[in-house]
Amino acid sequence: MSGEFHALHQDGLLLLPNAWDFASAAALVDEGFAAIGTTSLGVAAAHGEPDGEGRTRAQTVELARRLVDLPRPISVDVETGFGDPAGIAEELAELGVAGINLEDGLGDPGHQQELIAEVKRRAPGLFLNARTDTYWLGQPSLSDTIDRAQRYAAAGADGVFVPGMSAADDIRALVDAVGVPVNILFQPGHRIEELAALGVRRVSMGSLLYRAALHSAVTTARAVRDGSPVPSGVPGYSAVQDYVVGGRRRGSGGFQ
């Protein structure tokens, strides 16, 4: 699956939805998405933990172990690496995961280069998507972003991810400055075809689907409580069972 995942970044734009459990991933496979990512917020929140604090390594690995049964490449968000970026990368690669997201936490970019190089040494087949939070944390700097992206690409990163970057001129400048696929986080107002025209190779949905699921759950519960119509389109019990059972039949009559 790793080679297939790499190839998905080379021709056109990969729209990557992010799941938080097996059923959500299987449903997205059934919808026809070419690859599935995970959302660290969704995984953490579903287990009662905060995101970004490195508390969900075990849960992340267990989810990955289940998701590789699906007939799609799987990319896993490992936050900043749970204190052992190369170790977690190697463990996930051995499970059959196709790629990882690795954040820099806005630490020293030189140190992050060393971590990236070690990850690629121990798990060379993984698609390593190197994330920097220069825009996500509210102090956007195009020059700092480009510097970090170039450093990470030079260290062996297969792609760079800049969540929060949305201005067309900034995106175009980043694409022109690095020689690896650029990943952008979908935000309201984005149009996929416009991002593709700017040279973006991957658009991730991040925690959007998980947050939308929470919203839908509360909206539905409120409708039942208030005697309002329940939203239409909710999958039935058997449909969810089919997602789970069908998703486990990799290569033997399940999702194709």
What do you see in this structure?
The protein has 256 residues and is α/β, with parallel strands linked by helices. It has a single domain (2-247), classed as Phosphoenolpyruvate-binding domains (TIM Barrel). 46% of the residues lie in helices and 12% in strands. It has eleven helices and nine strands. The protein has helices at 2-8, 22-30, 40-46, 57-67, 85-95, 109-122, 142-154, 168-177, 192-197, 208-226, 237-247, and strands at residues 14-16, 18-19, 36-38, 74-77, 99-103, 127-131, 159-161, 182-185, 202-204. The chain has a nine-stranded parallel β-sheet, sandwiched between helices. The longest helix is centred in the C-terminal third of the chain and has 19 residues, at 208-226. It is globular. Residues 250-256 have low confidence and may be disordered.
Annotation keywords:
alpha/beta; TIM Barrel; 11 helices
Order of helices and strands: HEEHEHHEHEHEHEHEHEHH
Helix/sheet category: alpha/beta
Alpha plus pi helix count: 11
Architecture (CATH level 2) name: Alpha-Beta Barrel
Please tell me what the overall shape is.
Answer: globular
**Helical content band:** 40-55%
> What is the third-level CATH name, the topology?
TIM Barrel
Number of strands: 9
Distance between the termini: 14 Å
Mean pLDDT, all residues = 93
Q: If strands are numbered along the chain, what order do they take across the biggest sheet?
A: 1-9-8-7-6-5-4-3-2
The proportion of residues in beta strands is 5-15%
- Give the class-level CATH name: Alpha Beta
The parts where pLDDT drops under 50 for at least 5 residues are 250-256
Work out the radius of gyration.
18 Å
Q: Major sheet, described briefly?
A: 9 strands, parallel
- What kind of oligomer do you see? single chain
Taken together, the total number of domains comes to: 1
Q: Going by CATH, what is the homologous superfamily?
A: Phosphoenolpyruvate-binding domains
Protein name: Isocitrate lyase/phosphoenolpyruvate mutase family protein
GO molecular function: lyase activity
Keywords: Lyase
Pfam families: PEP_mutase
